[in-house]
Specification:
The chain contains 11 helices and 19 strands. Strands 10-12-11-13-14-19-18-17-15-16 form a 10-stranded mixed sheet, sandwiched between helices. By secondary structure, the chain is an alpha/beta fold. Residues 1-170 are annotated as: CPSase. Residues 1-131 form the Carbamoyl-phosphate synthase small subunit N-terminal domain. It holds the Pfam family CPSase_sm_chain. Belongs to the CarA family.
């Protein structure tokens, strides 16, 4: 069955339909990863987006039960050059097509993904529609131009109620803005007692859990649309150690007086080099974001830049001058991608241990 992808600039791609038999509108973006399509399509940060994979053959190792980053994908659509109908992998339990049909996510294959990627690189991320071959292109373009970008993506993908992942180690409250399961895995692997809370949690509610540290997760959309969380961050960073990833990094910046801006076509892939300005070390990182912290705005705050992207010089890490709080724009939990930056979870736990020790010393001095 034929299907078409129509962009708001009028460009039309004709291809083969796979996945769910539905029509979807979303922001068309591209990811340059050679592997990890299962993690990409289940990453909540792609909420409402139509993702193009630049690697030409997708689906050859199938879908398995273990590599999901969320239970229910929030992605709007999937665009590939070629999809493998007969996956070969000992862990495979279904094909990509079967999984997308089950989750009612439309896909289109057989199009020139290189051409599509070049259009996005030149024009920036564009709105697009995956639709039936019989739909009138002019009507779809008019509809796309009239469509207002959504601002409630975080609300869609965040947990609706708190839940716990018990452990014997330090208690970490994880604020879910669209959390990848990889973040939770890294914390539980280190023995943390994790409490996951909704995006709109207040500082008072966070402190009721008596956390040793707080983590701000990744998530979709414009960070300025999640303004209700900024006061919580401002209070919490003065109370306990804080670590933010991706959207959490951007929200941390906004809460401290910096500004954010939209990138032309974003960073989405698993081979982005990032330099740690403290050590000079370069890590290859996994990234997925369309916004960045505006560099000049940081100079007017109590934040310092700790990491930068070697490809375009954008800010990739921040640290507070007074409080034990730091953030990174990339994904140290990877999934997919390299685990070069995995050490940041250990740094966070070391920060918690240091803060706890200082707190105990303070209590002992007070008793004396």
């Amino acid at each position: 069955m034929k299907r078409q992808l129509i962009l708001e600039d009028g460009t039309i791609f004709l291809g083969e339909a796979f996945g769910g038999d539905v029509e979807r509108i979303g922001e068309v973006v591209f990811n340059t990863g050679m592997t990890g399509y299962q993690e990409i399509l289940s990453d909540p940060s792609y909420c409402g987006q139509i993702v193009t994979l630049t690697y030409p053959l997708i689906g050859n190792y199938g879908i398995n039960r273990d590599d999901f980053e969320s239970i229910d994908p929030a992605i709007a659509g999937f665009v590939v050059k070629e999809t493998a109908d007969l996956p070969s992998n000992w862990r495979s339990q279904s094909s990509l097509d079967e999984y997308l049909k089950m989750k009612n996510i439309p896909g289109i294959s057989g199009i020139d993904t290189r051409k599509l990627t070049r259009i996005i690189r030149k024009s920036g991320a564009l709105k697009g529609a995956i639709c039936n071959i019989n739909k009138d292109a002019e009507d779809i373009v008019s509809q796309l131009k009239a469509t207002v970008s959504p601002t409630n993506q975080v609300k869609q993908v965040s947990t609706k109620a708190p839940y716990s992942s018990p452990g014997r180690g330090p208690r970490v409250v994880l604020v879910d803005y669209g959390m990848k399961h990889g973040i939770l895995r890294e914390l539980t692997k280190r023995g943390c007692d994790v409490v996951v809370v909704p995006y709109n949690v207040t500082a008072e509610e966070v402190l009721q859990y008596h956390p040793d540290g707080v983590m701000l997760s990744n998530g979709p959309g414009d960070p300025k649309s999640v303004h209700e969380t900024l006061e919580m961050i401002r209070i919490i960073q003065t109370k306990v150690p804080l670590f933010g990833i991706c959207l959490g990094h951007q929200l941390f910046a906004l809460a401290n007086g910096a500004d954010t801006e939209k990138l032309k076509f974003g960073h989405r892939g698993s081979n982005h080099p990032v330099k740690d300005l403290r050590t000079g070390k370069v890590s290859i990182t996994s990234q997925n974001h369309g916004y960045t912290v505006e560099e000049l705005s940081v100079g007017q705050t109590e934040l310092i830049v700790t990491h930068t992207a070697l490809n375009d010089g954008t800010i990739e890490g921040l640290r507070h001058k007074q409080y034990p709080a730091f953030t990174v724009q990339y994904h140290p939990e990877a999934s997919p991608g390299p685990e070069d930056a995995n050490y940041l979870f250990n740094e966070f736990l070391q920060m918690i241990e240091t803060a706890t020790t200082k707190g105990e010393l303070t209590c002992q001095n007070a008793q004396i």
